[in-house]
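Entry:
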Amino acid sequence: MDLDMGKVLIVDDEDIILEVGEKLFSFLGFECIKAKTSADAISYYKKSIEEKNTFKMVIIDILTNDKINTEELVKLLNEIDKNLYAVISSGYLNHPLMLNYKNYGFKASIKKPYGLKELQMLLENI
């Protein structure tokens, strides 16, 4: 993956995860867009498609307090972009979405809280 210029989307309901994620990705040379809700994530993704500047990766938390659940969100994003590289993120490693992420349309998983080392390892595996 080209680390020079790229855009990533982080979808999480925790401000601290969004802020830390933005700082980490900025340090790695990415532009980072933050979304607190699934609706915002869909809106940002559609806009990126319209602008022909799609996201290199989307990291999605297991959102429990959202109108659109995580499974539905990744399905909708995969419909918008067949080349979507979606990563599921949670601190709950035994959650079915984390254990079987490929069955739900995700390409990888990352445990929260993640740091620079974990993101670098994730990027190396892409």
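The chain has one domain: 6-124.
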